[in-house]
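Handoff note, outgoing to incoming analyst
You'll be picking up this chain. Sequence as last confirmed:
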Amino acid sequence: QFIDQTFERAEITRSFPDHYPYRAAMENLQKLKESDSTNGKKWFHIGYQLLGMREFDLASDAYGKAVEYMDGNRSTAMYNLACAYSLAGKTGPALDWLEQSLDAGFDNHKLLLNDPDLNNIREDARFARIAEKSEFLSLGRFPRRDWEKSDYSKERWAQAIVEYQDYVRQNPSSGRGWNNLGWALHHSERFEEAVAAFEKAATLDFNSGKAQYNIACGNAMLNRTDAALDALESAVETGTIHFGHLEGDSDLDSLREEPRFQVLLERLEAEKESEQAKKKEKKMQMKMEQQERKIKAEAKLRHD
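Most recent structure output, in case you need it:
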């Protein structure tokens, strides 16, 4: 009944093949609701589908669940929630969530400035302040120069250190501010200070997985093997660190011969292979279900 009512509300008049994504999204949404799902990634995915189908209220609900249950990438869920509220004409919640997305780490200033989903709130005075904050907190303001082969550059990050030190003095509870300061310090090879900044970000619950990972990198560069591995294990437990992080990060080179590091690497490689297999199976299943729905719809049309 929920699906049929939503279908009617959408006033869909296209030919039956175009109905499949919509009906599938509604069926998946109903399953998540009935099971009281706490899978943040699934709520995020259904929110994305609903937003594209212009079901703004349903998308807002789904993204709200994603924000509640996701461990990583919550900032993107918050940003998309702001977009859903903006499109629905709900200015206050849209601006609230947009700012919260920045505090949680959303770092795409260009998108924020140009996203048509936010057009309904651009004339609000608060939007201008949020846009200014977005630009200030973006590490993209300090791009790698042509001759630089890595992110390590004392010259490149000198101004960032000054600015973010001042920012955390004025905003000591900003996890993102401490994270940005830690990043600038780390890539200026001031590892001791960087670890302290990342630890502060972690205590403020700013992207705890990445914070622990950065703590591990700093300690590894200081040859503090046990402390680095402790932090790395904590980071992996959050589920936000993947095989590619450990496999290719030169900051962790001092740990590679350690048995604890090898255990983590093997675990993440197995998880990567398992995830790839699941995606392949899901893709095949969706293709089969779509074909089955098409056959049923064609049969119904012939019957009618």
